Amino acid sequence: MKYSIIVPLYNEEKNIIELQQRLQKVMNSLSETYELIFIDDGSTDDTLNKLLSLKNTTIIKFRKNFGQTAALDAGIKNAQGEFIITLDGDLQNPPEEIPKLINEQKKGFDVVCGWRYHRRDNFIKKFTSRGANLLRKIFINDKIHDSGCTLKIFKRECFIDLDLFGEMHRFIPGVLKWQGFKISEVKVAHAPRLHGQTKYKSDRVLKGLVDMIGVWFWRKYSSRPLHLFGGGGLLAFLAGFILLSILGILRLLNIISLSDKIWPLVAIFLMLAGVQLFVSGLIGEILVKNYFSGNKKPYNIEKIETT
Fold first, then answer.
1. CA atoms of 37 and 76, how far apart (whole Å)
2. Which of 178, 186, 180 is nearest to 219 (CA)?
């Protein structure tokens, strides 16, 4: 199988038939083997029945709505193709743009992302997206303009040791870039939504921010949590010790009275917090070593040659 096209769907009953027809037309024109994988993410409308009416399509049905990241992960884990293509099911990612990504990938890239250069969304979505992009540059720095565009193509090996969770589908390019994969992007068209309702909610901004910080932490400290917690703990303990020492000297010299002061408690609190942080770092270090002692490895090998 050359290509696996993965499409997460949630209440998209009016888009499914047209989406499949357009996908088949595009992929048939490439004269390559392919498969279509549609994931019904707990839809409450007629999405499942529409899917069951299709031919030559793999359908994954969730028991309830788990979110786009979970749907993509399920599709990827069941894909057979050498290359994996993802796109939204609302027809805002035109299937006719797929050849652009494939042509760019053939230049030697592992991942090619779509860039919705002229977005057809409302002001609120555009505004929050720009804010998210700014934060993403600070925490992730994946060097692409539109990580939120689902239209992407990946080599299959990108997902060998990558599990998706939370809202991290937006950060896949950044995670893969950290692992040494080659990333590129191309400008793609973005169509307005004609059928159904947007699934965008304001709480996605908060969830995305939390996951962004989590991805940043995993990148920097996944194999050395003691550097973060241990370093912070030592600084807190040192600050508390210095403060307590200064207070003790001043009290011995009868310069100040500590009977009605809160600073001794602050110093002791800092020292205790420092000890707790340092211990947390040690525990995290042990957990990470156990995690990587199995099949998981903190590195990615592109190839091994024998000369």
1. 9
2. 178
Q: Print pLDDT tens along the chain (307 aa).
A: 999 999 999 999 999 999 999 999 999 999 999 999 999 998 999 999 999 999 889 999 998 888 888 899 889 989 999 999 999 998 999 999 999 999 999 999 999 999 988 777 666 666 666 666 666 666 667 778 887 789 999 999 999 878 777 677 778 888 888 888 999 999 999 888 877 666 555 556 566 666 667 666 766 666 677 777 888 888 999 999 999 999 888 888 888 887 778 888 899 999 999 898 888 877 876 776 665 555 555 444 444 455 3
Residue 113: CB partners within 8 Å, gap ≥ 6? 144, 146, 147, 149, 151, 152, 173, 183, 184, 185, 186
Q: State how far the Cα of 259 lies from the Cα of 225, in Å rounded to an integer.
A: 39
Token pair in block for residue 255: 């310069």
102 sits in which H/E element: helix 98-105
Burial class (CB in 10 A: 0-12, 13-18, 19+), 253: exposed
For the chain, state the CA radius of gyration.
25
Task: Report how far residue 201's alpha carbon sits from residue 276's, in angstroms, rounded to the nearest whole number.
Answer: 38
User: How are beta strands 111-116 and 3-9 bridged, if at all?
Assistant: unpaired
From CA 202, how far away is CA 205, in angstroms rounded? 6
| CA 5/CA 32 separation, integer angstroms | 12
List the structure tokens of 115: 């860039």
The single residue listed with the structure tokens 């609120």 is 124
Helices 203-221 and 123-139 pack at an angle, to 10 degrees, of 10
- Beta 83-86 vs 152-155: how paired, if at all? antiparallel
- End-to-end Cα separation, the chain, in angstroms: 30
- Tokens representing residue 76 in the block: 């990827």
pTM recorded for the entire structure: 0.72
The three-state secondary structure class of 152 is: strand
